[in-house]
Design goal:
The structure is a homodimer of 317-residue chains. Chain A has 317 residues and is an alpha/beta fold. Chain A folds into two domains: 42 residues; 257 residues, Rossmann fold, CATH 3.40.50. Helices cover 47% and strands 14% of the residues of chain A. Chain A has a seven-stranded parallel β-sheet, with helices on both faces. In chain A, strands 7-8-9 form a three-stranded antiparallel β-sheet, covered by helices on one side. The N and C termini of chain A lie far apart (57 Å). The relative contact order of chain A is 0.13. At the A-B interface, α1, β1 and α5 of A face α1, β1 and α5 of B. The structure holds a DNA duplex (30 and 30 nucleotides).
DNA sequence: CGGTTACCAGAACGGATGTTCAACTCATGG
DNA sequence: CCATGAGTTGAACATCCGTTCTGGTAACCG
């Protein structure tokens, strides 16, 4: 992190006085490329903040349509791109806006497993909120972390918000039901889970049953997957698999999970799903239709697929 | 003014989601050029606001140098450009920042004659301040208005700030001292001038004696100019000419002016000079050195010339 | 002391953006 | 019904900006 002052100067000269990168470079004795980089840094780090004074979202109609169809509290939609990473970034940006709107200045936010929530972190530029806490609502897995472990998400989000963070020291999926019970009995684990259960806001991904669609699904063995599907599972929220009616599928896998149950999750008043992509549509549609989640952050393509899926359901059901 | 909503959408897609003008055009069914224009409008009109979270000004040292040399309260400096209109725009932008910092939410701002103050108007995007008033501190001239008549400046600035505006219905320079006295005796004129005299903040230009440097100076006849110079005039603030010591030069011209006197001007606690250009340096330097003005908004070139002039004075005087 | 790694810098390229200009639309008034 | 002019439009151009790639520098290590 270089001198904040230089970034501010360059940003002022460019954004306020309309000087070109070239001109600023000549004025301050820097190369044009250096100026370009300083400006990019300044935007990334939040030194430059761009506000748009207009309540209109670019995808208003689609948002309103989803709110109506599924009876949701609120919906945020980002544009879709051919490049999936770019879409992820836009969804992350939109998720950050959603959090800015929903996160209270005190209280607790429960954070679930999600590849998309990770994309939010770089877009958060908030005032420190020391009376706020971010709590993982389930355990994590070992080995290499792909940036989407619940504990890591809670930690990074919490840090970005200048809030307290909590840890749930257990695996998300224990090897046996008995081992899971033992973990849940641990005082540290129990305490964190109680805190998560009492949260005001839940933010989590919704996974599908397709191996490409979830993080968790490919942690499970082939036979376990087949078993879940056989029991009617259509998706999961942080390892809690649910069927087409939004009920827990139960079974052995469910008993091995260390984390909030579906009932505990739905007891949290505000529940935001952050999820996008064609493989997620079915699971996401179910989670929204059955009320497991009551808000969603997604991209245009997924949103369109959701409305389509919803109307198909209506006709056939 | 087209639908604010469309501007907001386009701005969000570009500034928040990083979409190119081309992509936005395709998404919304607009041409690329149209998108470019919408974005430019959005910035001009303040729908897009860019904040820089850094207190550092690009020309800190120079500002500090002027504050020190002349014992000023504060100084704002804009970059200089080869294209004078661009410089004027930058100074205007900087003046708007200055006003944002200084203008109270209630009270009165006295507005003097200035070509530069006009450049401020397009850069003001403030919350309406209905308890604030903008008052011209002198009369105006007839015929074509080049956008820098005191009454016009007060009106346009006041409008931009959503504030009350006042009018001083008289010429800035009456044809005879007696006519001027008659104007001053008018109840409407007297009332407005009293209001201006009680202002908290004064914002005005500082004119020089060179015909190219002032608006007013070329309204006067050749002989009147010569007379003023002979009496030691080095510059003026809204038609009040002063000498190298900062005192009024008096004389017939001074008696024909309808507007606050130099003594009345300097009774206003906060006095900002907005002025730039090589022809203004001498007058501006005098106004600052003698304390007629105690703040200044100018450009880099003028600022450098001011520090140089000040050190020359110190050596010789 | 050479090798390695990590980082930083600027040349060069290709895409993005801003501006100019000629064509067009649509009122208004003869 | 055409003439006029103000206001829009997008094609074409000129500039600006972002990224990639290569070379350089410094720190760390064997």
């Amino acid at each position: 992190m270089e001198s904040r002052e230089l970034h501010g100067r360059v940003a002022r000269l460019h954004y306020q006085h309309g000087m070109t990168h070239q001109e600023i470079g000549e004025l301050l004795g820097l190369s044009r490329v250096k100026v370009t980089r300083l400006l990019a840094d300044a935007r990334r780090s939040g030194i430059v903040e761009i506000r748009i004074h207009s309540s209109a979202s670019p995808f208003d109609e689609l948002e309103a349509a989803l709110v109506g169809r599924f009876g949701l509290q609120q919906v945020w939609i980002a544009p879709s791109f051919a490049d999936e990473r770019r879409t992820a970034d836009s969804v992350g940006m939109t998720g950050a806006q959603c959090l800015r709107a929903l996160v209270p200045t005190s209280g607790t936010v429960a954070v679930g497993l999600s590849s998309s929530v990770a994309a939010i972190v770089p877009h958060v530029h908030a005032e420190p909120a020391p009376d706020l806490g971010f709590v993982p609502l389930a355990g994590s897995w070992g080995g290499i972390s792909r940036g989407m472990n619940p504990h890591e998400l809670a930690l990074r989000l919490g840090t970005a918000f200048g809030a307290r963070t909590y840890h749930l020291p257990a695996p998300i999926l224990a090897s046996t039901p008995e081992a899971a019970a033992a973990f849940r009995a641990d005082p540290g684990v129990r305490e964190t889970m109680q805190l998560a259960a009492g949260a005001d806001l839940l933010i989590a991904g919704v996974g599908g049953m397709d191996p490409r669609s979830g993080i968790l699904i490919d942690v499970l063995g082939r036979s376990e997957q087949r078993q879940l599907v056989a029991n009617g599972a259509v998706g999961d929220i942080s390892a809690r698999f649910f069927d087409a009616a939004g009920h827990s599928v139960g079974g052995e896998v469910d008993e091995r999970v260390v984390g909030l149950s579906l009932d505990e999750l739905t007891a949290i008043p505000h529940r935001v799903a952050v999820s996008f992509g064609p493989h997620k549509v079915h699971a996401l549609e179910t989670a929204l239709r059955t009320g497991l989640m009551n808000m969603v952050v997604t991209d245009v393509d997924t949103a369109k697929a959701l409305t389509k899926a919803a109307s198909d359901n209506r006709k056939s059901g």
